[in-house]
Amino acid sequence: MPVQSGFTENTAEHLIFDAGAFYKNYNPVTGVGTLIGATRGGGEFVAKPTIRPIEIDGVKGRAKGLNVIDAWDVSIKANLIEITPEILRVALSTGEVNTTDPVYDVVTAKNTIEIADYIDNIAWIGRLSGSNNPVVIIIYNALNTEGVTLTTADKAESVLPITFFAHYDASDLDTVPFKIYYPKLSTDTVNPTVVTVPADAATAIATTANIVWTFNEAIQPAAVSPANFFLMKALDGTLVPGSLALNAARTVVTLDPTANMTAATAYIATVTKNVKDLNGNALIDNVITNFTTA
């Protein structure tokens, strides 16, 4: 029987919320990019093909199978309320910022567009109601070709609209220059687990050793930070500085101390319950590992 509404029990999981955020040179694998700035009025993504119907004598209208795509118009628009010299530089396409003046950053523009003026990508990051992972829309080889229009008004803040247009790359003319990363919805509610090396209560650990946490499933890259993975001396809680690395599979985090650990000393390695898997399930509790160096 026909229904009178498209609303189903799954509708609530497929809603895109809020204005989202805009990034330059976003890496969808690591989740790292350069935040462009705050917006008001959000933005807009356009991926519009120019479709031309092929006319055939004797055919009275459009015919199935006789449409061709002549071009794609792909863009992302951001309505920026935060306006900085860097944002103005990007908006001007060929903009440059001179920081040598002691009072002002001086923004100018060139008369020619160079390859370096194209931005590798512009990304919009939004929130899907049914997932802890974001919706990500990326356009490639981006350039604003509309210039800057900055409108001011009494008792109001200026908003700078920037429309970044995607461009084909000469090395890959068959790929339309955008991608939409739509998170898979999952019923996974199982908490991740982790194994730490050195193991708890281990002794005679080399002072040159790294701390390695191995998870049973991929974790969210944003959680890999000194706030969630750290090493300290057991005696006084002194934090041990070092660098963190996440492997490509997102399952192994390595802490490489900046300097060798102290000999014959007790240490505590901690990973916090703020670490989550790709479906948003967190560690049940902080995982604390005690060990002693040789």
Q: What keyword list fits this structure?
A:
four-stranded antiparallel beta sheet, Immunoglobulin-like, mainly beta, Pnp Oxidase, Chain A, Ig-like domain-containing protein, 294 residues, SbsA_Ig, signal, Cu-Rt/internalin_Ig-like
Description:
- With 294 residues, the protein is mostly beta strands.
- It folds into two domains: 11-181, Pnp Oxidase, Chain A (Roll); 194-293, Immunoglobulin-like, CATH 2.60.40.
- It contains one helix and 18 strands.
- The protein has one helix at 85-91; strands spanning 16-27, 32-35, 39-53, 67-80, 95-98, 106-109, 119-128, 134-144, 160-165, 178-181, 194-197, 202-205, 211-215, 229-233, 242-246, 252-257, 266-271, 287-293.
- Strands 1, 2, 3, 4, 7, 8, 9 and 10 form an eight-stranded antiparallel β-sheet that branches. A four-stranded antiparallel β-sheet has the order 11-13-16-15, with no helix packed on it. A four-stranded mixed β-sheet has the order 12-18-17-14, with no helix packed on it.
- It starts with 15 loop residues before the first strand and ends with a strand.
- Residues 188-293 form the SbsA Ig-like domain.
- It holds the Pfam family Big_5.
- InterPro entries: Cu-Rt/internalin_Ig-like, SbsA_Ig.
- Keywords: Signal.
The global form is extended
Please identify, by name, the CATH architecture of the largest domain.
Answer: Roll
What is Rg? 26 Å
**Estimated helix fraction:** under 10%
Total helical segments: 1
Straight-line distance between termini: 75 Å
The CATH topology of the largest domain turns out to be Pnp Oxidase, Chain A
What structural category characterises the helix and strand content? mainly beta
The averaged pLDDT comes out at 94
Order of helices and strands: EEEEHEEEEEEEEEEEEEE
Tell me the total number of β-strands. 18
Strand content: 35-45%
Query: Which CATH C-level class of the largest domain is it?
Result: Mainly Beta
Main sheet attributes: strand count, strand direction, barrel closure = 8 strands, antiparallel
Protein name: Ig-like domain-containing protein
InterPro entries: Cu-Rt/internalin_Ig-like, SbsA_Ig
Domain SbsA Ig-like: 188-293
Keywords: Signal
